[in-house]
């Protein structure tokens, strides 16, 4: 095995292990953080301030990565993010004032979702794409990467079901941060951006891929906003309100949804290997969105659950293929910026979805589903129209 291939395998192992650890920590945080803040007697405004700090931190850190990530060093920034996550855990464990936790959260290391789209994801996408493997292997790596996050996040959520305890949450995040920093130190030097030639001025954030990345960011922002209308919390609320579902039924349904989504993440690379990245993104996403729009018209609870499960078989197949597509579309020296910009676009718009769904719900229980499904179908059609004639560099280089 050549040195470059060994470095690539090592990078994949480190990233997948780090992703598993972080998914576990974020799964615990997704369940416990809100309960801990409530036990501390924080007002709604204070909780909102903290969550806003987390979101703002992800935005700021992603913009820093887009502008200076390759210059400062990917390994260095990856290590620093895990150190910041350890600091978040320490602050939570010892129960410091809210303002200090808000300041630490501004690093972007904390997340309000089990599977985040923040700075960690940006760096990991770039490192996985730069292993020197054939595109087929890269896409498989992205499928496994997302499946690991889903499984680890579920395990973390189960752990978080224990009584709310700041020492539990803080201790888990501290341990994950410390272990992640140690793993980051094992990354090979080949994960860094290509060196600039002496005497050449550093280019702008994006040059050759600026137009394509801007179009993708706009489309991804639309898709993420639409997805925010039907987050799992709203789906659970709707199942209770519309069909009188019990929490046991909802829990079992969501567990089955998670299992099917994990399977679809692993299956997506095999589909992409046969039909291509863009076709997999569009033609698995389209039927899943038709199913989404049909859910509120199911006359019975079993019918609604059947539609949810059918959608789960397809709805996540675009995730690893989307990540691989962005990395394949742009030049190697612009991958960090492209990943940061496209991930930030998704992260920015998603929180508006649940708020709008809550405002629209009195006008009709079906409205959030219809808006989400219609917008997502529009995203799929626009994506196909804009990029169907674009040939990826790997498609030009590799034989059919």
From TrEMBL:
Major facilitator superfamily (MFS) profile domain boundaries: 11-391
SUPFAM superfamilies linked: MFS general substrate transporter
Record's keyword terms, sorted: Membrane, Transmembrane, Transmembrane helix
Cross-referenced InterPro entries: MFS, MFS_dom, MFS_trans_sf
Entry's localization field: Cell membrane
Membrane-protein topology: Multi-pass membrane protein
A Pfam entry, by short name: MFS_1
Ranges annotated as spanning the membrane: 12-35, 47-68, 80-102, 142-161, 168-187, 216-240, 252-271, 291-314
UniProt-recorded name of the protein: MFS family permease
Origin species: Nonomuraea africana
Higher taxonomy: Bacteria, Bacillati, Actinomycetota, Actinomycetes, Streptosporangiales
């Amino acid at each position: 095995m050549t040195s470059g291939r060994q470095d690539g395998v090592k990078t994949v192992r480190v990233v997948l292990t780090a992703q598993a650890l972080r998914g576990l920590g974020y799964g615990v945080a997704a369940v416990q953080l809100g309960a801990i803040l409530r036990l501390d007697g924080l007002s709604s405004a204070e909780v909102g301030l903290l969550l806003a700090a987390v979101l703002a931190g992800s935005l700021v850190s992603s913009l820093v990565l887009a502008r200076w990530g390759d210059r400062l060093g990917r390994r260095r920034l990856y290590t620093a993010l895990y150190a910041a996550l350890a600091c978040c855990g320490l602050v939570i464990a010892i129960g410091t004032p809210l303002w200090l936790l808000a300041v630490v959260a501004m690093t972007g290391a904390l997340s309000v979702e089990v599977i985040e789209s923040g700075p960690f994801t940006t760096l990991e996408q770039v490192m996985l794409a730069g292993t020197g493997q054939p595109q087929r292997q890269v896409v498989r790596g992205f499928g496994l990467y997302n499946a690991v996050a889903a499984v680890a996040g579920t395990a973390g959520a189960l752990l978080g079901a224990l009584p709310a305890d700041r020492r539990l949450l803080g201790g888990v995040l501290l341990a994950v941060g410390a272990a992640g920093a140690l793993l980051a130190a094992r990354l090979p030097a080949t994960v860094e951006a290509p060196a600039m030639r002496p005497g050449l001025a550093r280019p702008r954030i994006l040059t050759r891929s600026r137009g394509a990345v801007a179009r993708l960011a706009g489309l991804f922002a639309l898709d993420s906003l639409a997805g925010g209308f039907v987050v799992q919390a709203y789906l659970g609320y709707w199942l209770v309100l519309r069909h009188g579902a019990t929490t046991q039924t909802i829990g079992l349904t969501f567990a089955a949804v998670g299992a099917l989504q994990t399977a679809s993440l692993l299956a997506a690379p095999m589909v992409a290997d046969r039909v291509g990245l863009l076709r997999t993104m569009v033609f698995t996403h389209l039927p899943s969105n038709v199913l989404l729009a049909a859910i509120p018209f199911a006359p019975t609870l079993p019918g609604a659950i059947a539609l949810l499960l059918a959608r789960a078989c397809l709805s996540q197949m675009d995730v690893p293929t989307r990540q691989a597509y962005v990395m394949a579309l742009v030049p190697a020296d612009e991958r960090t910026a492209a990943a940061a910009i496209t991930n930030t676009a998704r992260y920015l718009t998603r929180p508006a979805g649940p708020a709008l769904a809550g405002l629209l719900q009195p006008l009709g229980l079906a409205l959030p589903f219809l808006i989400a499904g219609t917008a997502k179908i529009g995203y799929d059609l626009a994506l196909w129209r804009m990029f169907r004639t674009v040939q990826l560099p790997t498609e030009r280089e590799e034989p059919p």
